[in-house]
Amino acid sequence: MEIGAYRNSNNIANISAVSANKKTPISEVGVCKTCANRTYQDGSNDIGVSFKTPTRISPSNAPSAVASHEQEHVANNERNAQKSGGEVLFQNVTLNTSICPECKRVYISGGVTKSAISAPKDKGNNVDAYA
């Protein structure tokens, strides 16, 4: 049998027509209670960033809000490195996802910023022993 020669009555048009007639409770409600009541809170010791207290964010705004929050950590790390005379070697931001146990939707569950900052440079202490 050739690939693609198999016929199936469940083609895309048929599946779409059947799916349109069935409504799930979530499509009727819009957002489940768990997603509507979800809060975000920063767990770091970084002073001056958002979400220090539990904050409710709508599921549609969570990706941009969490990304902006993590960008605050990036900016603070860069500022602290400059103040101390160090240098930011790299920074990485990861947004985490989870699945809601009630409605099974994927949502942004948080974020992590990882940074590597070099120690302050000792200016004037670089002596060439062979000079």
Which series of helices and strands comes N to C? Answer: HHHEEHEE
Shape: elongated
- Give the strand tally: 4
Helix content: 25-40%
Largest beta sheet: strand ordering: 1-2
Determine the N-to-C terminus distance.
81 Å
How would a textbook summarize the main sheet?
A: 2 strands, antiparallel
User: Poorly predicted ranges (pLDDT <50, ≥5 residues)?
Assistant: 1-20
Class derived from helix and strand content: alpha+beta
Structure, described:
With 131 residues, the protein is α+β, with helices and mostly antiparallel strands. The protein has one domain. Helices cover 32% and strands 23% of the residues. It contains four helices and four strands; from the N terminus they run H-H-H-E-E-H-E-E. It has a two-stranded antiparallel ribbon with strand order 1-2. A two-stranded antiparallel ribbon has the order 3-4. The chain is elongated and about 55 Å long. The N and C termini lie far apart (81 Å). The N terminus is likely disordered.
Task: Kindly summarize this structure in a few lines.
With 131 residues, the protein is of the alpha+beta class.
Topology overview:
Elements: H1 12-21, H2 25-29, H3 33-36, E1 39-40, E2 55-56, H4 62-84, E3 87-99, E4 106-118
Antiparallel strand pairs: 1-2, 3-4
Region (Disordered): 57-85
